[in-house]
Amino acid sequence: MHTSTSARTAPAVVTSDRFRWRVVDIVVAAVLGVAIGLIFWGWNTVGGLWFAAMDGLTPGLGGIAVGIWLLGGVVGGLVIRKPGAALLVELVAAIVSALIGNVWGISTIFSGLAQGLGAELIFLAFLYLRFTLPVAMLAGVGAGVGAWVLEFFWGSSPNILKTLEFNLLYLGTLVVSGAVLAGVVGWLLVRGLAASGALSRFAAGRERRREV
C-alpha cells in the first residue's frame, strides 16, 4: 500500500519541481530581457523605418516589420520553460526599450505585456511540455495577435476606428512576421545559445548536446 501511494504521488512532485522557479531562472530571465531590450532599441530605428515604408505603400502592411519586437516572449519561453517566463522576458525587454528611449514612450510597456501574454498562452496551451520550431512559430503568432488586440482597442488612434480591410491586413502581416521574425529567428537564436554552452543549466542546452 505504501509503495502504491508513493508511485501515485511522485508525478505531482516532479511536475511541481519542473514548474518551480530557481534563482538561475530568474537571473537568466533578467539577462535575456535586458539583451533583447537592447535588440528592440536597435530595431526601433530600422524596424520603425521599415514599418513606415510598408504602411505608406499599403496601410496595414507595416505589420511585417513587427516580429523582432516579439522576440522576448518566444526566447524566454523556449529557454526557461516555466509559467510566466515568456511574459516576464518580453516585459523586461519592453521596459529596457522604454527606459533607453523610443518614440512610443511608456506605451511600450503595455505592448510588452500584451505581446508577452500572447506568447505565454501558446506555451500554456502545450502545458509547457513542447518547445519545437512549430511551437516557437505559434508563440510568435500569439505575440503578434496580442499586439493586434491591444492596438485595436488602445492608443491615441485605436485601430477599431480604421477600416476592416486595414485590420485584416494588419493582423495577417503580424501573424506572418510573428511566425518568422519572432518564431523562427527566436528558435534559431536559442539553438545558437545552446550550442555555445550558455544554456548548460537548462533543458534547451541539454537537448542540443544530445543532438550533437
From TrEMBL:
A matching Pfam family: ABC_cobalt
Provenance organism: Microbacterium mcarthurae
InterPro entries: ABC_thiamin-permease_prd
UniProt keyword annotation of Hydrolase present: no
Name the UniProt record assigns to this protein: ECF transporter S component
TM spans (from-to): 21-41, 61-80, 87-106, 136-156, 168-190
Keywords: Membrane, Transmembrane, Transmembrane helix
UniProt lineage: Bacteria, Bacillati, Actinomycetota, Actinomycetes, Micrococcales
